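Problem: given the chain below (428 residues), write out its structure.
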Amino acid sequence: PIVVAAQYGHVYVTRYLLEHALGLAPTAGIEDVRVKDSDVTTLLLEGILGDNIENTIVQYVAAFTGYLSALEACIERGTDVDGKFENGETLIFAAARGRQFHVIEYLVEKGANIDVKDNRGRTALVLVSTASRYVQTAKLLIELGIDIHIPDLHGRTALHFATSRHLLDMVELLVESGMNVNARDNYGKTALGTAIWYVADDKVIPADRLNCVKYLVGKGSDVNITDEHGNTIVHLSASRRQLELVVFFVKCGVDISVRNSCGQTVLHAAASGADEAIVRFLVELGMDVNARDNKGRTPLQVGFEENLTNMDLDLQATYDMGRYSLWGWYSDRLSSLIFLVTHGADVNIKDEEGRTVLHLAAENGQLDAVRFLTGNGANIRCRDKKGNTPAALAKKAGHVHLLQYLETKDAKPLHTRILGVFGVRYLK
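Solution.
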């Protein structure tokens, strides 16, 4: 009860519980003592300091809140300055979390190991690299000699964490302090790769994120380093629909001919992200629209698999029902695939299973996609390695209307209602 009362800042309730000997257990979790009210914190310390000086909560609260006299009393009575709490943190971590500079300095003076790691392999510097409010704390830790290069259990350094949150002020501090901008984590990602990985799929890049990326490149980040899957930063940017970053990296000299470990080009990644502007940009740079990955798939096939499969959706029904957001999502994805087809993508290329994109469309009930593909030369009678035609797959999946369309072999051009959405430029 006392922990709950303290957490919610109930001073009088906390005092009552203390006065009635309802104290804190020696093993109370340190997460429980990050209370909201400074008066409650003081009350906790004064209330249990007397007979419970060895209580780990006293030590942690004292370091976290900067109550130096209480901390000194603990240490004078034998508290280990490097003693670990249940998550592996020490008093250095508590003081760093609380931004208590004088406590950090005091602990180092008392011989505390500034490079100690918690159970996740993080140092105090890695811990505080996740928020701009800790910049001065990080600066102090660096000045006191903390090893800035120590990674966590996943190989991520403080710089990886700072870039994942696009904290330019923290990134600048770490880089200027000598951190290696090209250090890789256990997954092959550098700080730059991490910055791209954590860019949201929202097309418009916030200024802080873009500035962080540009700063890293300006400080020597290798734009051609690949991650554990062989992806370049352009693969990552394209798959996340970030046109501005794709253009920026191309101007920086990234080799867009590099394939990842799946044999996929940047155009495959762009098709996977299904952003028409990026697909158009790469095609205009001369990328091969019929390049095949290790499974024999073209960008068109990869794009279709990633975006339009497992969506048992009839576009007309969706449109008629007024579900414009879903219609917009679908049409946005489909537009990039239409662009590929109208710019040379071969709709009849088969993957390693002998399937064309028409097989995928038929099996997943994508009637409008089937109409578009058959209207652009897709072979209705082609068979995969198991002998299935697109119609056979549609039948097995129970797509009756699509099956009827294929059986009539009514290969008409895409509906004018679809062309109205995507524009007549696709017919040129």
